[in-house]
Amino acid sequence: MYDLFTQQVIEYHKTDSVDAEFKIQNSEFKIQNSFQALLWEKSWVDTVQWHLEDLVRPADVEPAYALTLKRRIDASNQHRTDLVERIDDHYMAEFGHVPPQPDARLNTETPAWAIDRLSILALKVYHFDIEAHRGDEAHRARCQAKLDTLLAQRADLTTAIDQLLDDLAAGRRLMRLYRQMKMYNDPSLNPELYKK
Questions:
Q1: Looking at residues 75-83, what average pLDDT do you find?
Q2: I want to staple 7 with a disulfide (CB 3.0 to 4.6 A). Which of 16, 29, 137, 181 is the partner?
């Protein structure tokens, strides 16, 4: 899974444009099934949003352009959440029928939200690797130390996800779906929208 995210990040950076056309795969990484395609799309959305966040940060960004970017980021956040919920639907279909063991426990997050963190981690590793080779020696050393931490985190997170999926398959953990229930995007729930 992490390799898929890494390959998608590399694919995005071939154009390095938030307006580039979404492509489901490249020549180096073949998508084998619809679940992999879903993960690829999730990583693409995260990567584009990462770069939208960069574009909105400069202090001299023109306000109208910043608002346009903010709207795109909001839409991207909703798309990201929708994709995470579809990933969890996949895991619910896979594990929802597994009878829980008597001592089965809950997890603090669903598999998809852990995978969401792994997707973001692939972006951090990619960009800190660039920074660890750019700038002066002090900058490179600081960034390499952060990259080392991220690589350790990657090992821990991939292990934790694998363990969670194994536990779900064996009934040692309970598979529950938790939806985000966001209110700010819903015109029937956000008072600033429904008052109008």
A1: 95
A2: 29
